[in-house]
From TrEMBL:
Region Disordered, residue ranges: 35-57
Domain POTRA: 193-261
Keyword terms, alphabetized: Cell cycle, Cell division, Cell membrane, Membrane, Transmembrane, Transmembrane helix
Organism of provenance: freshwater metagenome
Transmembrane segment boundaries: 170-194
Location in or out of the cell: Membrane
BP terms from Gene Ontology: cell division
PANTHER family recorded: CELL DIVISION PROTEIN DIVIB (PTHR37820), CELL DIVISION PROTEIN FTSQ (PTHR37820:SF1)
Cellular component annotations (GO), alphabetically ordered: plasma membrane
Main location: membrane
Name the record gives this protein: Unannotated protein
Amino acid sequence: MSMNNSHDDRDSEEIIEEISVTEVSDEVLRELSDLFGPTKGVQRPPVQKTPTGDATEDFTEDLTPLDARVADAEVISITQDDSDGYRAEVIVIGGGDEYDLTPAPADPLLKPLARGADLVDMSDDSGGTVVIGDQDIDRVVIVDDDRPDPRFDERRRRRERRERLKRVKWLKLGGVVVGFIVFVMGVLASPIFAIRNVELEGVVYTSPATIEKVTDILKGASVFTVDSADAREQLLKDPWVAEVRITTNFPNGALVEISERVPVVWYLGADQKARVVDARGHVITVLTGWPTKYLQVRGQGPNLEAGAVADDVFRAAAQLVLALPPEIRPKVKALDLTGGGELSMILKGGTIVRFGPPSDLKDKLVAVVVLFRRQDPATLAVVDVSTGEPTIQQR
């Protein structure tokens, strides 16, 4: 084996390294012929058959080692430069010109290359490419092609472009929705739908200052965006107001419905001012004089401001007064509250009805009504229902 290297000013190429072996066994030629087709000028050695005659007849077989048989073949190594600058190592396994180079039939499963109908291209997992020529089918050309597939970058660019367009589409859609909402809110909040007329119902004792403040909140605001919760809260701060409902009337109106508290009883505080209480025990107002329209709960109570909640005994007294039937209510002069928290009712004729602690007042009142229907209360001095069963004292 010998190798010669020479350099030129323009290019360089490697000298073909050649190994020749003159003798090749019949078995090797038969195997090569099966793989690459028959060779020119060399007949395919006949296949040795098992003798059918005497079983003891000896026959010979080529026992040449495989390495030696391969060494008998002709191997040519060629280094080629592709037109695009790619350098490939080509190994050709086959005989010389003395062999038959008639190509074997091409495999129909192999797909020809696009650039030449005489070549078949197959790619393996490692990235190499196997090329089989039509004219030299008995030769195998292995080209190690590590260049990346240009279609991969194109697919990646297309995918990125689709994702970018999708993001842009969603951003545009979100912008349209936000813009539409802003436009609608601007139209609804415009002065076209501003409240100009405010109607109030149920107002008797509510403070005029509170009414004016609520009117200022409502007027000028849009019927769609008016802060009715703020107006309602301002009204509920008034001690006389129990409940409020505000509704808007398209396109420029508002209706305010107020439910005021109902005074039931009153009591004197330590400051000698009268506190008017409703059925829920709320102090509605504080007066310097004594009211005559409501029943008094005799006994000193706490000095509470308007809007505060009185003790439970005053709430029980107010509920008792509301529960009085029409046949007894005109006969009641006042209610009396002792220091121990016991409640009594004073009739105009002087009869005293003792209820005791402010509990089970409904059952106690039923017993009093039944007794008064059976007997004239003017003949009775004291009626005691504190234990649930009435006891009486005659005059």
